[in-house]
Design brief:
Blueprint: E1 6-14, E2 24-34, E3 53-60, H1 66-88, H2 99-122, H3 130-138, E4 143-147, E5 150-154, H4 162-173
Antiparallel strand pairs: 1-2, 2-3, 4-5
């Protein structure tokens, strides 16, 4: 992945408010990325002084290089995002009083999430969150008509996500691609 991010680190001592024996020597890693979209402001509040960049900071005591530590931190953030999306959706029903019900909810949530991610890839929406996929691709405002033993899906005329849905449909209904041995 190509990125114009700049990553820097400095030595850092964490938990300095505690006893000296509980201080932790680590590194503070900061990732700076140029902001692509301007900030939305209604003019009533004072804006940021330096809004050109976004900064993401974390501390670590790992022995990884600065770039590797940054990559691992971002990978961990992706996992945390998936967990947050699952908690926002089907895992909001947990915990129930029954172990079997909890296991069923988790299994179905993971299956649905994996299907939604495959749907996002097929619709060229790889970075879309689960809630976005549900509103734009899964819960479609369409009308199904039956004619001549065929089902026809009538999408809205100016639906902004029609091209992604049609790409998903053609991917799902076309024969699989031939793979050379």
């Amino acid at each position: 992945m190509v990125s114009d991010a700049e990553v820097a680190e400095v030595d850092f001592t964490a938990f300095t408010g505690r006893r000296k024996a509980e201080h932790v020597l680590c590194r503070l890693v900061v990732r700076r990325v140029k902001r692509l979209q301007p900030l939305a402001s209604d003019g009533s509040e004072q804006g940021e002084l330096f809004a050109t960049y976004r900064h993401h900071a974390f501390i670590t005591n790992s022995t990884l290089s600065t770039i590797e530590a940054d990559q691992r931190h971002r990978d961990h953030a992706l996992v945390e995002q998936v967990i947050a999306e699952l908690k926002d959706g089907p895992l909001a029903h947990l915990p129930s009083g029954k172990y079997a019900a909890n296991a069923a909810w988790v299994a179905h949530a993971v299956i649905a999430f994996n299907i939604a991610r495959a749907t996002a890839v097929a619709a060229c929406m790889r970075t879309a969150r689960w809630a976005t996929l549900r509103t734009r691709i899964i819960n479609i405002p369409a009308r199904i008509a039956a004619t001549g033993r065929r089902l026809v899906v009538h999408l809205p005329t100016r639906w902004p996500w029609a091209s992604g849905w049609e790409l998903l449909w053609s991917t799902a209904t076309s024969p699989p691609a031939i793979v050379a041995p």
